[in-house]
From TrEMBL:
This is GNAT family N-acetyltransferase. Pfam families: Acetyltransf_1 (PF00583). Keywords: Transferase. One of its GO terms (molecular function) is acyltransferase activity, transferring groups other than amino-acyl groups. It comes from Flavobacterium cheongpyeongense. Residues 11-151 form the N-acetyltransferase domain. SUPFAM superfamilies: Acyl-CoA N-acyltransferases (Nat).
Length: 212
């Protein structure tokens, strides 16, 4: 099976709804919060050349798009998804790596960041040279954080004034050299424990606010 990963064009508009549905169903299956996307928004990213799609014999296999903030000072990769039929093939890492390389060329001076609750994404980011950072090191653009409104954890983010949530912030600064190997090796066990601790702390605080 040959899978190609290419920069999107208008010919890929037909996959927009399927991409949105796959992103949402995957989040529901994992029980994680996620910012919802619309087909129109995905198509806009496609037409601007700010997305990459993986195709297997003409069928949608995976996707990821780029967002820029603060006049290109920050760049984020969003909507990383692999169709269920093509999982467990290492495709997510291949897509992410392609988008990462593409971003470095298109936005050479931008800091690349992301927020995620997924350990798999954290590992991919770490392998690329990202490091965990507090939200204060990420973009302050309110339009980025407004994109979290459809996430089930948005109330937690609001209560912390966009400074903390269940997601982990990760950042790659192109000015930090070298990127290989990462200065902060990924430790899945440690991050998994930290994630559980963070969830427990937030839940206790949320319950205290709701019932006091």
């Amino acid at each position: 099976m040959k899978i190609s990963i290419v920069v999107t064009q208008e010919e890929h508009f037909k996959f927009a709804q399927e991409i949105c549905d796959t992103i949402e169903s995957s989040a529901l299956l994992r029980g994680t919060g996620i910012a919802k996307r619309t087909p129109e928004y995905i198509q806009k990213k496609m037409s601007n050349g700010d997305a990459m799609i993986a195709l297997a014999d003409g069928k949608f296999a995976g996707f990821c798009y780029i967002e820029s903030w603060q006049h290109g000072k920050f760049v984020a990769h969003s909507g990383l998804i692999v169709h269920p039929d093509y999982r467990n093939l290492g495709l997510a890492k291949k897509i992410k790596s392609k988008v990462f390389e593409y971003s470095l060329k298109k936005y050479p001076d931008a800091k690349i960041f992301g927020i995620t609750t997924g350990l798999a994404v954290m590992k991919i980011n770490s392998d690329l040279g990202y490091k965990p950072v507090p939200f204060s090191e990420l973009t302050t653009d309110p339009s980025f954080w407004a994109g979290c409104k459809t996430c089930t954890n948005f109330q937690i983010l609001q209560s912390k004034e966009n400074k903390m949530c269940l997601c982990t912030g990760m950042l790659y600064d192109p000015k930090d050299k070298p990127k290989d190997p990462p200065r902060h090796p990924f430790n899945e066990v440690v991050l998994s424990r930290l994630k559980k601790i963070k969830q427990a702390l937030f839940l206790n605080k949320l319950l205290s606010v709701l019932f006091t």
